Amino acid sequence: MILTNKNSIVLKEIDSTNNYAKQLLARKVEEGTVVLAHYQNRGKGQQGNFWESEADKNLLFSLILYPYFLEAGEQFYLSKIVSLALVNVLKNEVDEVSIKWPNDIFVGKKKIAGILMENSIKGNSLETSIVGVGVNLNQEKFLSDAPNPVSLKQITGKEYSPRNTLNDYLVSFYSLLEKLKAGDFAAINKAYLSNLFRYGKWAKFRKEGVEFEARIIGIGSFGQLQMEERSGEISEFMFKEVEFVI
Ligand code: BTN
């Protein structure tokens, strides 16, 4: 383990930076501590999936936060700014960056980054948050059965530094966090919607194995996906209740 500064821990190999961050939480580490790994042998994706990342190729980190200022019902705002900061960083390099609801980061129709947030709640407030982020930077071949991965290098042909990308990310994230702390929910909502994949566009989705056509018309305050179906019916979906047909 190499301690680069008081807030960042760099690991050569670990099961998952989120798991390591969880252990640090038990020791009440400082807010803003970042766990960065060169390789994860059991990287965690959403829904119990494995997050594939070849050693030394990509950005893999977990950021520890104590977001007491947010009510439990407002936690999706944290997810929104975590995604928006990624969009800001990636837009400096490539076009067509968007957020596929709730928090996958896409370039065109391919996934370039994933987010796994593990929050805890105390009373009516968020107590801790582990913000786990994986960004595909330099990997050129993906072996797992993840549906549509892509890396920055596959698009631009350039090599990227995980460290510099992390620094750029943190600058953007903390500026958005200030907005959130100041209660500027409207600006965050606007930015989230304007970067949302397929927002307002008729497209195919799937619920309970059945495909249907709909368009996204909004996001509820708890992060629910609000959609209009072709029939005119308005529906709301929680995470995992609906899939995008890509
Ligand atoms: C997803 O399935 O889209 C979420 C992927 C999250 C991956 C990152 S990599 C760093 C952190 N540690 C983990 O084990 N997972 C997250």
Structure description:
With 246 residues, the chain is of the alpha+beta class. It has helices at 17-26, 75-91, 152-156, 162-181, 185-194, and strands at 2-5, 8-14, 34-40, 59-65, 97-100, 104-107, 110-122, 125-135, 203-207, 210-219, 225-229, 234-237, 243-244. The strands form 2 sheets. It has an 8-stranded mixed β-sheet, with helices on both faces. Strands 12-11-10-9-13 form a 5-stranded antiparallel β-sheet, with no helix packed on it. It is globular and about 55 Å long. The site of biotin has 20 residues, from α1, β4, β7 and β8.
Per-chain topology:
Blueprint: E1 2-5, E2 8-14, H1 17-26, E3 34-40, E4 59-65, H2 75-91, E5 97-100, E6 104-107, E7 110-122, E8 125-135, H3 152-156, H4 162-181, H5 185-194, E9 203-207, E10 210-219, E11 225-229, E12 234-237, E13 243-244
Parallel strand pairs: 2-3
Antiparallel strand pairs: 1-2, 3-4, 4-8, 5-6, 6-7, 7-8, 9-10, 9-13, 10-11, 11-12
Helix pairs in contact: 2-4, 2-5
| Percent of sequence in beta strands | 25-35%
Unreliable segments (pLDDT under 50, ≥5 consecutive)? none
Helix content: 25-40%
Shape: globular
Q: Give the distance, in angstroms, between the N- and C-terminal Cα atoms.
A: 40 Å
Strand line-up across the major sheet: 1-2-3-4-8-7-6-5
The strand count comes to: 13
Q: How many individual helices?
A: 5
Q: What class, by secondary structure content?
A: alpha+beta
For the sheet with most strands, the description reads:
8 strands, mixed
Ions, cofactors and other ligands present here are: biotin
Instruction: Give the helices and strands as they follow along the chain.
Output: EEHEEHEEEEHHHEEEEE
Radius of gyration (CA) equals 18 Å
Overall pLDDT: 95
